[in-house]
Automatic annotation (TrEMBL):
It is an enzyme of class 4 (lyase). It catalyses: (2S,3S)-2-methylcitrate = 2-methyl-cis-aconitate + H2O. Its EC number is 4.2.1.79. It comes from the Bacteria. The keyword Lyase applies. Residues 20-265 form the MmgE/PrpD N-terminal domain. InterPro entries: MmgE/PrpD_sf, MmgE/PrpD_sf_1, MmgE/PrpD_sf_2, MmgE_PrpD, MmgE_PrpD_C, MmgE_PrpD_N. It comes from Microbacterium barkeri. One of its GO terms (molecular function) is 2-methylcitrate dehydratase activity. Belongs to the PrpD family. This is 2-methylcitrate dehydratase. The keyword Lyase applies.
Length: 508
């Protein structure tokens, strides 16, 4: 059973008991000792594998190298054993907040892990790096880690269902800070009072504008969720030491809703599990087959199908126009409705191209597929026939696809749309797709074998075969792992992989 928690702003002179505040309700959910159901455990394992896969593929990319260098320049804190860093040796540790930072950047860099879209956007797998880091630091076992991850997913996705941040140009990681803090609270078995303070402080310190995803998108896009995870670890530490936080953080007269979201008249209804109710939100999320913004996943599948069936569509000389009829979100975030000229710029950054559905559709149409490196290569983006085709592609909002995007019915919810291609001779090609092939309702839903295959594909260039098998064995036994085994839940790069990349120097 789900309990709907009403949320609004309150004037300072209006009493709002702590027990009626959203942060407290989140804390109660985190402190509920309910067990994790078997199908949820299986999906947690899938997502741990998925995170490691995309982290492996990003180990030598600039943002990940920089974040790893920062983490390794910080020694293990005195209160525990420390935590591992993706790519590094098993006995090389740093403090948990810096491990959360480095590993969070590695997971997010390629925009290739799981997603949940509702009133807001999210990548709930971003909860996993801070939770693993804390589990390793304190010596938690696999069962505790699974419970913490289930909470992290539940809280972030429940907030995403109800509270839109992007509408007010606030970055979606503002839901991640509270969820990671709540997940750590579950992992550690903390009292609601402590989790309440940590959730409030994590939210307070992780609100930022969406300029990180606008125009010429910078490397900060990969760092933003890692920063939220790092702040969550630090917020929990302060709360455990008895420190308090701004309250009520959501509902206060000068709180998040009043000044960053819908304002003093704002009203939300946040669905949260009832006491004793299992945390099952992770089952409503979905991963990516392709390294691109989630709203591009279905379009890649449609484009590769069209290009393979009708090769003449790949030649811009044969095309007059291509219009993607889609949801409001897709149109204004990654489509021509954003008004960003950078989305049509062949010299744009990888992060910008990742948020350009005209570019992505053009390349997938021409190549019959998508590659996490080759499809973003500067020489690929600059190819003359691609640029010509790319600039004939626009998006438009279709109210029906917007309605389906926001539908609460999982059988109806959709992230694709309808394409109308006008050929040079005036004839048209029309096709549509609702969800990506890898979606639970798609043509080829992802299962454990697909997650394992994705991991092997992305890890083989940088991990030895024995290391691949070692990690997969641990991950697939996650709820049974001892603290010593949790301490080894990471990936170690093949000799020479990390050493081949110069570490940038900074302040630390």
């Amino acid at each position: 059973m789900t309990v709907i928690h009403p949320v609004r702003t309150y004037r300072s002179e209006e009493p709002l008991p702590r027990e009626q505040q959203l942060a407290w309700r989140i804390a109660e959910v985190a402190a509920d000792p309910v067990e994790v159901e078997d199908d949820v455990v299986d999906m947690v394992i899938n997502r741990v594998i998925d995170n490691a896969a995309v982290a492996a593929a990003s180990l030598t990319r600039g943002p990940v190298v920089a974040a790893r260098a920062q983490a390794l320049d910080h020694p293990v804190s005195r209160g525990g054993a420390g935590a591992t860093v993706f790519g590094c040796a098993l006995d090389e540790h740093t403090s948990p907040e810096w491990a959360a930072w480095a590993n969070g950047v590695a997971v997010r860099e390629l925009d290739y892990h799981d997603t949940f879209l509702a009133a807001e956007y999210s990548h709930p797998g971003d909860n996993i790096p801070p939770l693993v880091a804390v589990a390793q630091h304190v010596g938690a076992d696999g069962r505790a880690l699974v419970r913490g991850i289930a909470t992290g997913y539940e809280i972030q996705m429940d907030l995403v269902r109800a509270i839109s941040l992007h509408k007010h140009k606030i970055d979606h990681v503002a839901h991640l800070g509270p969820s990671a803090a709540a997940g750590i609270g579950t992992l550690l078995g903390l009292a609601p009072e402590v989790v309440f303070q940590a959730v409030s402080q994590a939210l307070h310190t992780t609100t930022a504008t969406r300029q990180s995803r606008k125009g010429e998108i910078s490397t900060w896009k990969a760092h933003a969720p890692a920063f939220a995870g790092k702040m969550a670890v630090e917020a929990v530490d302060r709360a455990m030491r008895g420190q308090t936080s701004p309250s009520p953080i959501y509902e206060g007269e000068d709180g998040v809703i009043a000044w960053l979201l819908d304002g003093p008249e704002g009203r939300y209804e946040v669905p949260l599990p009832a006491p004793g109710e299992p945390k099952r939100a992770i089952l409503d999320s979905y991963t990516k087959e392709h390294s691109a913004e989630y709203q591009a996943q279905a379009w890649i599948d449609l484009a590769r199908r069209l290009g393979s069936a009708r090769p003449e569509l790949r030649d811009p000389e044969n095309i007059r126009s291509i219009v993607l009829h889609t949801s409001h979100h897709t149109h204004v975030v990654i489509g021509s409705g954003s008004g960003d000229p950078q989305k049509y710029d062949p010299t744009a950054s990888r992060e910008t191209l990742d948020h350009s559905i005209p570019y992505i559709f053009a390349v997938a149409l021409q190549d019959g597929g998508w590659h996490h490196v080759d499809s973003y290569a500067p020489e690929r983006a600059a190819r003359g026939d691609t640029v010509a085709l790319w600039r004939k592609i626009t998006t438009t909002e279709d109210p029906e696809w917007t309605r389906r995007y926001h539908s609460e019915d999982p059988d109806e919810k959709a992230f694709g749309g309808r394409v109308e291609i006008v050929l040079a001779d005036g004839t048209t090609v029309v096709d549509e797709i609702a969800v990506a092939d890898a979606h639970p309702l798609g043509a080829r839903p992802f299962a454990r074998a697909d997650y394992v295959r994705k991991f092997r594909t992305l890890a083989e260039p940088v991990l030895d075969d024995i290391e691949i098998e070692r990690f997969l064995d641990l991950a697939q036994r996650l709820p049974e792992l001892t603290p010593a085994e949790v301490a080894q839940l990471t990936i170690v790069a093949r000799a020479g992989v990390l050493e081949a990349v110069a570490l940038p120097k900074g302040l630390f």
